[in-house]
Specification:
Layout lengths: L6 H19 L3 E2 L2 H15 L4 E11 L7 E10 L3 E8 L3 E5 L4 E7 L2 E4 L6 H14 L10 E8 L2 E8 L2 H4 L4 E6 L6 E9 L2 E12 L23
Antiparallel strand pairs: 1-8, 2-3, 2-12, 3-4, 4-5, 5-6, 6-7, 8-9, 9-10, 10-11, 11-12
């Protein structure tokens, strides 16, 4: 296992936080294309032998309509090449699964799992597909839909992944991936839909090549099966 108020007051706090962030990032160094490629290759080499992965996360969702962020705890599961399962345990239980074929989302309501009806989950699919890409170490992809740049922030590198399509940028502006100091995994991701609406996910307690249930990533079931066999 690898460890690694009132609305006006909320606006004032957001502006202050943005100013502080800008001051901190002012010292960041943009990296050249060669340096960015070297970072991507290091991440790819580290992830090349990862067939499955599970990792705990804490998510903070910042929305303009709420004065405080909404915090969620859970676990993320991955199976190469494209299957992702995102489970939340607190303050509510849910399971979201994305694979090459489909998207499925379930919520625990009352005393049973219920499958939710999804319209066009473009943000969900985009974010989780990018998660699958970085977990298998393949951020470049081959479809040309994302542009990647990097900055050095102290001992860590931060990758900025921006949709090339203007239409896609209307729903998600960009992703920011902060790597571990050794560049072998993603420690934090910031999903920016707009300056006022963004999500931060921090990862810990990573376990690579764990045995996962055969149907852990199935999207055609009326209810999700436990990700780990015997749970």
């Amino acid at each position: 296992m690898t460890h690694s108020r009132p609305i006006h007051a909320a606006c004032a706090l957001f502006l202050l936080a943005s100013l502080v962030a800008a001051m901190v990032r002012a010292g960041d160094e943009p990296l050249s294309a060669d340096a960015t490629n070297a970072i991507l290759e290091r991440l790819a080499d580290a992830c090349a032998k990862v067939e499955t992965l599970q990792v705990a996360f804490r998510q903070e969702k910042h929305l303009a309509v709420f004065p405080e962020p909404v915090t969620t705890d859970g676990r993320l599961y991955f199976r190469r090449p494209t299957s992702i399962r995102l489970e939340t345990a607190h303050p509510f239980r849910s399971v979201t699964i994305v694979n090459a074929a489909a998207v499925a989302k379930y919520e625990w309501q009352g005393d049973a799992w219920h499958r939710l009806k999804l319209g066009n989950p473009i943000v969900l699919r985009t974010v989780l597909s990018q998660m699958a890409a970085w977990l298998r170490g393949d951020l470049r992809g081959d479809d040309g839909q994302m542009a990647i740049t990097a900055r050095q922030a102290g001992e860590t590198a931060v990758l900025f992944i921006t949709p090339v399509s203007a239409k896609l940028r209307e729903v998600i502006d960009h992703l920011e991936l902060t790597l571990s100091p050794d560049g072998t995994r993603v420690d934090t991701v910031r999903i920016v839909e707009s300056p006022e609406n963004f999500t931060v996910m921090r990862f810990a307690d990573e376990e690579r090549n764990a045995a996962l249930a055969e149907q852990a990533f199935a999207t055609d079931l009326p209810r999700p099966v436990p990700a780990r066999g015997g749970e």
